[in-house]
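Could you please consider the sequence and fold following this short note?
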Amino acid sequence: MKLLKKLLILLLILLVVIASIVLVIGFSYYSNTLKDKPLITRIEEVTSQEHYTPFCDLSKNYVNAVIAVEDHRYYEHGAIDPIGIARALYTNIRDGEFDEGGSTITQQVAKNVIFNQDKTLVRKLGEIFAAYDLERNYSKDEILALYVNSSYFGDGYYCIYDASHGYYQKDPKDLTLEEASMLAGVPNAPSVYAPTVNPDLAKKRQRNVLNRMVEYGYISQEEADSIK
């Protein structure tokens, strides 16, 4: 029994040491990234863009669609979502695929605005520290606006304004439910889901967005069915 206790204590110490090393690596990566350009400068580069769309100028349909498909607990959790991570891990194991990453919208803003798109463990660790920094300095509405203004929508459209005008010839605030649910699904994989690239896959993704909106109470099943 004493030997078992000693082994458990050693294991706990080892886990703490590993966790500490991992956190130091992630924080160092984030800090080094900001040496080239501070966080506030990176954010201002997005918000000062000619076609930057503030939160108040986004249609409710579009906001609801984005939250439903990307991070339905967005306004309830902090920079990261432990429940979302656990759910994504369970889904990936169950399906034998790794399609869900469990990233919050804030983490995706960190990826879009602060880091590059390389899928490395170190960047993912740095992303967590960046997400906490974002939530300390900006409101949830501001972060959501940063997300839709820094996402790629295919066809050379790098923000929601350009995508809304490029695909539908209208301002983001005027997007209908059908249009909003289509655009909300594109940034997940623009090369696949852009409406002009593969209309069938784009519609399939849109149906997924609509299903999530029904699941989380944003629209009725009848509203979703009328678009499907």
In short: Residues 80 and 104 are 6 Å apart (CA to CA). The chain has one domain: 2-70+97-227.
